[in-house]
Amino acid sequence: MSFLIRVQLPDRPGTLGAVASALGEIGADILSVDVVERGGGVAIDDLVVELPSGRLPDVLITAAESIEGVEVDAVRPYAGVLDTHRELELVEEVAEEPSKGLAVFTEGVPKIIRAGWAVVLGHDAKGVHRITASSAAPETRMTNPPWFPLQRATVLDGEEDWVPETWQELGTELAATPLGKPDRVLLVGRPGGPMFRAAEVARLAHLAGIVSVVLPD
Predict the structure, then answer these.
(1) Bridge partners, residue 186, by sequence
(2) Average pLDDT over every residue of 49-54
């Protein structure tokens, strides 16, 4: 089974290699590595690893944190391998058929930023409503979140009153960005974490800005 493990580690040569060796010793096979954020002498990396059948994910935490200075932010099941070049492919798909672009974009975003789901929100006389959603998006709806319309990309507090109870029970981390205009917003959820880092929110905003150019109003 594959897992996504997010680690904080000292940004110095050899540290990631030491983590890889420690994971290898417990039989974990590293499928991909993605640098999420770097600065202040610390790196945040996402590793997709495959564990042999019967091994519990707790061993990943123990192995990684056996290296001095390494902390594990989160471990969760993950289907697929990270593909940091997927952004270009997604933009091309949207541009090929703009009339269906919003649905294509919403379905593709979670795969890029390693979220569980995504929804696009709009507004009409009845209030905030869903325009489209990814296949894994929860059916539970929200009612007029206080941050809508949204002026800039941001991390949202998943424990505020507007957040549906089922989302809170799953410990869902949330981030959102305007999609071309403040009253069309892309909301992404990551049940069970890890939290969205500033670099991930910036990446989300950049991608939304590019795609909004080719989306119909």
Answers:
(1) 120, 177
(2) 87
Q: 153-182 burial, b for 16+ CB within 10 Å, e for fewer?
A: bbebebeeeebeeebeebebbbbbbbbbee
* 132: its two tokens: 């489209």
E strand spans, the chain = 2-10, 29-39, 42-50, 71-77, 117-124, 127-133, 154-156, 173-181, 184-190
Q: Give CA–CA dist 189/175, Å, rounded.
A: 7
Query: What is the band of 64 on the pLDDT scale with cuts at 50, 70, 90?
Result: very high
What would the two tokens of residue 113 be?
Answer: 């930023």
- 137, 78, 134, 85: which is closest to 105 by C-alpha? 134
In 10 A of CB 82, how many CB atoms?
17
Task: Determine contact, residues 216/105, Cβ cutoff 8 Å.
Answer: no
Q: What is the pLDDT of residues 110-149, one digit of tens each?
A: 988 889 999 999 988 788 999 999 999 999 888 789 999 9
Residue type at 5? Answer: I
Pairing of strands 154-156, 127-133: unpaired
Contact 51, 57 (CB under 8 A): yes
pLDDT tens digits for 139-192?
988 878 999 999 999 999 999 999 999 999 999 999 999 999 999 999 999 998
Rounded CA-CA distance 119/115 in Å is 11
